[in-house]
Amino acid sequence: MKSIFALPRLPLSRTAMVGRASLSTAVHESSALIRVTMPPVFNAKTAQLALPPKAARRAPFTLPPPACSSGGVGLGQTMPPGYKAQVGQLNTFKLPERVTGSTGDMALGKALVDAWRRDGIIQISMNDQQRSLWQDAKAASHRFFRKPHSEKAACVDSQSYAGYIASGEEVTDGIADYSEIFTITKDLDLSEPRVRAKWPCHGPCPWPAGDDESEMKQPMTRYNENLGAEGDKLLQLAELGLGVSPGALTRYTRDGWHHTRVLRFPPRNATNGKGKEGRGIGSHTDYGLLVISAQDDVGGLFIRGPSQNEKFANWESSAAGLREDDDGWVYIPPVQGTHTVILGDMMQYLTNNFLTATPHKVGLNTRERFAFAYFHEPSFQAVIKPLDHGCGGLRSTNKNNDDDKGIHYGTHFTNMFMRNYPDRVTTKRLLAEDRYSLLARPELRTIGAAPVS
Ligand SMILES: O=C(O)CCC(=O)C(=O)O
Ligand SMILES: [Fe+2]
Description:
six-stranded mixed beta sheet, 9 helices, 18 strands, iron, oxidoreductase, Fe2OG dioxygenase domain-containing protein
């Protein structure tokens, strides 16, 4: 059996960043009562006119007005106790039904890219169908997490990383997280050719026993399929906003290795004592292109916006634990009826750091919290190469793209999951059967070998 430590570039669990000037503007303690009014919804039709010249645009995040102002919701009120952070107040963008490349789409794409570059996060409104899919998926997650431990713990598969992860089982930067998770990866039965060929991470999703599909599988699958379309729509808009050719991003997501983490966080006073007090998930970046998240009304998510002073590349050395206890975190209050979208490692690599992966972490609150993180990813087989043109004219450091070997997404994903779950049966089987070596085979590297601008 090959030792995990002998594998090429396998960083330690979910990673971290370095030194950033602390925000000089007001920082709100979680106990502060803040009243704010929500900003207007972005209107794609008027976006071009509405976009102010760069210098006049608002500073990263609009800080809420003082407590005495009237109306609005106390967004900062839901911040978990014991945390100190600026409270983010995000504009809510509305996406069109279809992206056609119209002037409105181009303006919206530019506005999204600007917001990611400024804040590291965007907020988009759910349409009626998405609200209903989210309600159904959330109800299914409540049902699942209420099951006895033994029933949840049985939801494990030895070939895929899908299924249950108990509170305290996941490790970020060497410290156990309190989150309780059900991961959904591509659900492939045992007769599927990639599963038969023993490709790493490929296998069935171990739905709970007795699920007649309506309990868990259907609501989760419908939710994920809808976000699959939403993810590609966002990438099309990002292509317009970056000024790269159509397909420059979406070419990678055909048969994308999209997956979802269904999460429950215990209240801070009811943990199993296996993690670090108050901590839900430690600071990390996620692995692919986009993370589209929904959270209930409890609150717990913090992010760090892009900074010139904070350089990291999670595919080279782990960004887990990055600046976990530093200043400079922004609390993202739950806004019902919206998804938030942050960026992953592959978006950073593709755009030569023009867009950067968004470091984030989760704190435990006084009530239990439920959230969904959907990951919009390249195909497992994709070899990602930095974009040649566009992206504001930025090019990768001094590297010539033709010489760049690129990043094989399937290898990055496998490294990250082995890192997070060193003791899981899936990791043990992967190593015991030397599946890792298959990642070098040409049939696992079929998408995107040549750079596209
Ligand atoms: O709970 C959240 O809002 C985010 C979860 C997260 O960061 C993850 O699952 O990777
Ligand atoms: Fe995450």
